[in-house]
Structure to design on (962 residues):
């Protein structure tokens, strides 16, 4: 199986490292999805083991964390979901918090890197960086089109290069956000060390769209601080766009016309959902005494946008989700299910997937032969991929909701909310998740894993399966609708 | 606008009837969807007016039925939904019941006829009967394929012929079911006249997939009668398949190989959903003391299949929906949303629409260039139509659920159930609908109307909009999933 790879460098020079490198290449090339699943599963198992240690738990004499809570937290950390079954601010020791801090970064960067590697493996001709850049560029000749029949060799060196790009960009953005947050945390009376820790934790938690809180009160402690909340929103927003869009914004922010259709589609849909969500929360909750009822109009307006931002995948909240009206919970469900941008740390079916569905319906209504957006024709096969992703998501959410409802007999408002939050790695919770029995926590963990790894690998797995067919069957048309 | 039509017969021969015929032709041809909406709206307004009369209400001195209840019942009758805000067995006078009895038949036949007319208007070459038959036949050359650019003239005479075919078939099936039901009703001690009325009402209510009950106890009165319940299931099942499938079964039941892809796809998906639904109800409810907990295994098994049948669009129930576990309510939601066959009296997005989505995902997973089913290639543009229908349905359900939840602050389990039941014209209810305030009843009525008329007209409206484009835009590929 490795003959052609080995042949290139000659069998005599084959070292232990070379063998590992070859095995890696073979795995990535032969089944990129299995590779991604393996990487995530390994990271989760290591994190679970470390978090189970008594050393990871705060206080002495408590013993270790129960396996289901350690496992749940590990999945939630590596999948950057942000759902919790223990109090993140008080349950873990400094060692445990360090594991979680590193886990969020590894998980966030892992998703970004894997999404790009998988995207590369199933495409042709482009180098890794070029691939990442390509989606941010408008030159159609540089963008892959049509079914893929060959696979691109991915060398460990290339992956390393990509990891460095992603890591440096991620850490740079996180550092800027952290520095910006420092004055706000210091102003709350924390000493310099704790302020640094809280700021760093919040910056990482926000940009990776995790949503864990390091302080006992959570973001509510900064409810009066527009600056701090705005930084959270900015970090979550950037993280949820994905690097193809971030790079386009950084490189060509002066000339939006040069942005690729992916960038324009992601930004348009994200902003449309952001505004629609905020308006919905404003209309539905303005007179709810438990949420925005007692706030000024400006504050209600601002918090509605904060809430809408966090449904993208951030998962921070300044109000109790359980206090929302059922109507707002349902609106949140829909926004969470859609999630953020492709190749980002956000989850869900992704904004471009939703956009493609609506572009298809719009093209159908106009009777146009092809989907179009921003003066570009969208290839037809994208619709089939989008439908597959939505069916996958809907199936996971449906099965998980039925199981959790049957186990707990809880109200659908809360079960659907927490399940979609898990699937879309959002992390907002009505409080149901932490009250689940162990078997329910395992179901939720499986939902988080399938929501995270599934949506990242599914598109790649499906695209990689493209093959030619040598005969055409007779065509026949069923009636639909 | 009518020049070519008039020209054919010469202006001198133009009579009053001819003018009406021409106006009818123009309306059907120029906007078949608007024509369908007009027909349904007119039928609903007439029924509302008649049901509002004091004459239509049982008992004397009660005055008329409130407008919102008369309107709701009219919509529910004409749209063959079966949701109620009054007790159907006791609220109406014989006159009111006659209106409803006729309304169910008119509504059921109206849907069947309109679906076929609309199908014809947007297709070419085929006569009305041929068109109806075509979908039941396997000969691909007789089936329309590809985008439609011309429109077919539909003459009043042709519509009349179709109406006769549909009406005769409908009344024949209903008569057989009615005769079969008579012994069961007589056995309950009702006199001959009332037994005839109940049997006729149940036969019509079942075959048109309405779900109204004429007797105060409803189908529960026949809970020990396997024969009666089986007849209900058969009538609902046949009605939900649609005439293209019924005709195929009647004409070529001995040679299933000759069935068209539409027939095979409808039957396969319907049976798969039927069995899956029954298994789900069996597993989730077997130990629910309020539903199947106290029943024997055989009875539980049978009732699970009865329940599963009724989610297709029948809407009869032998248990209280509000007693189901939340998990079963959610399973029912999904089954109702899918609904029955195309060009049938059932509602929902239709089984073939769901099948096309899964065929697309399956083709994507296999990397096949085209969707395939039963050795036939399914045209690509069908997927776009299916996606449009699902988006339409999801949007109606979402908006309606948010509004009803906000108005009533009821639990999502119940609101989602009744809203999907309304959209999919199923008629099962948790009891929420009849407790709604007037404005909630109007929202539900609108949901029923859009679910019924929308899904019938949407496909036609979209298919009719097909047009050619003379230029091709450059292609560019966004990232999805
Ligand atoms: K999150
Ligand atoms: K019904």
């Amino acid at each position: 199986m490795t003959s052609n790879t080995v042949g290139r460098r000659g069998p005599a020079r084959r070292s232990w490292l070379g063998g590992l490198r070859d095995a890696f290449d073979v795995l990535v090339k032969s089944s990129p999805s299995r590779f991604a699943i393996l990487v995530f599963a390994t990271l989760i198992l290591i994190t679970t083991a470390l978090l189970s240690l008594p050393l990871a738990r705060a206080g002495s004499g408590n013993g270790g964390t129960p396996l289901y809570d350690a496992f749940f937290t590990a999945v939630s950390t590596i999948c950057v979901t942000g759902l919790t079954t223990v109090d993140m601010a008080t349950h873990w020791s400094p060692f445990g918090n360090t594991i979680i801090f590193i886990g969020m970064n590894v998980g966030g960067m892992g998703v970004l890197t894997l999404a790009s590697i998988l995207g590369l493996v199933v495409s042709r001709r482009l180098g890794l960086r070029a691939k990442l850049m390509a989606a941010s560029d408008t030159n159609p000749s540089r963008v892959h089109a049509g079914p893929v029949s060959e696979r691109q060799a991915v060398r460990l060196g290339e992956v390393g290069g990509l990891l460095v790009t992603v890591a440096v960009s991620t850490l740079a953005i996180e550092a800027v956000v952290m520095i910006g947050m420092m004055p706000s945390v210091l102003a709350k009376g924390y000493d310099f060390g704790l302020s640094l820790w809280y700021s760093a934790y919040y910056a990482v938690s926000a940009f990776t769209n995790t949503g864990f809180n390091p302080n006992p009160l959570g973001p509510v402690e900064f409810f009066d601080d527009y600056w701090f909340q705005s930084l959270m929103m900015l970090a979550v927003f950037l993280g949820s766009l994905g690097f193809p869009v971030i790079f386009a914004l950084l490189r060509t922010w002066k000339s939006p016309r040069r942005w690729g259709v992916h960038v324009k589609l992601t930004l348009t849909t994200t902003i449309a959902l952001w505004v629609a969500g905020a308006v919905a929360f404003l209309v539905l909750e303005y007179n709810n005494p438990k949420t925005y009822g007692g706030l000024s109009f400006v504050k209600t307006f601002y918090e509605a946008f904060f809430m809408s931002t966090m449904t993208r995948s951030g998962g921070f909240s300044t109000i109790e989700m359980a206090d929302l009206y059922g109507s707002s919970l349902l609106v949140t469900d829909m926004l969470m299910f859609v999630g953020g941008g492709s190749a980002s740390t956000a989850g869900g079916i992704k904004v471009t997937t939703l956009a493609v569905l609506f572009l298809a319906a719009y093209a159908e209504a106009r009777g146009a032969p092809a989907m179009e957006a921003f003066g570009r024709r969208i290839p037809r096969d994208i619709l089939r991929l989008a439908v597959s992703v939505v069916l996958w998501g809907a199936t996971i959410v449906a099965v998980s909701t039925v199981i959790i409802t049957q186990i707990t007999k809880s109200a659908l408002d809360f079960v659907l909310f927490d399940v979609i939050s898990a699937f879309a790695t959002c992390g907002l919770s009505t409080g149901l998740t932490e009250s689940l029995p162990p078997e329910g926590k395992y179901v939720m963990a499986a939902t988080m894993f399938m929501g995270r790894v599934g949506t990242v690998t599914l598109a790649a797995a499906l695209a990689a399966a493209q093959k030619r067919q040598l005969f055409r069957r007779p065509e026949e048309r069923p009636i639909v609708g």
User: Anything to note?
Assistant: Residues 26-143+156-463 of chain A form one domain. Residues B 80-82, 209-211, 313, 315, 425-427 surround potassium ion (ligand 2) (CB under 6 Å). Chain A touches chain B through 95 residues (CB under 8 Å). The first helix of chain A runs from residue 3 to 9.
